[in-house]
Input
Amino acid sequence: MMLLSSSTALPRGGAFAGPMDSAEQGVKVHRAGAVRVTLEYAKAPDCKVFAWKGKALIEEWYPKISDILFGPNHELPGDSVTLICEPMQSIAYTDIRKNRIHISAEYIKANPEDYGMVVHELTHIVQHYAKLQREQVWLQEGIADYVRHKYFERDIENLAAAVDSTRDNYRTGYRVTAAFLFWLENNSNPAVVREINRGCRDGHCTVELFRGACGTDVDALWNKFLISLKK
Ligand SMILES: [Zn+2]
Output
């Protein structure tokens, strides 16, 4: 990675659509319409390196994640994504109405190599669960971590070892739900993530999706998963 001085002078306004890099980096999206990534880090100039690498990641992974979750020929939810690095309270969040990913400047400073977070947040844009209810967020987060750890970090087979059977359940979300989905994929239905993702996208993000994909209710599936952890 090229190191840039944190004192590098930044143009005012802080929005960088990157006209100079579009030719150099060659936005290659394997379908009609390239993704245009805009960077905003004027309030956090120390995040410049992270932001530019994040931009390249988004260009590569936006169509890739769509293929993972929906298969080929799925229409991407918009042709532009904005990555914003700024001082803020939470670590990260994504506004799927505007395709804007916000990441904390303080978090980036402490975790300058956590590009998996960009992939996780970008997955939320691809998921585009417009009708998601608060009590369904665990499943959205589990699928985002499934994508992050299976395809980007490539360590998803390690996640099950960190599941605490006394405290966690399938609603824990994030890595726990991701480990569960990966186990279901290998032991019940290889297409489970796509099928559940499609249900959530269509506005039916409930545990009934597990029965539909795997033929058994989610509690029974979770218990089988826990038993597998003890072997
Ligand atoms: Zn998330």
Q: What stands out?
A: The longest strand covers residues 80-86. DSSP finds nine helices and five strands in the chain. Residues 120, 124, 141, 144 surround zinc ion (CB under 6 Å). The two ends are 42 Å apart (CA to CA).
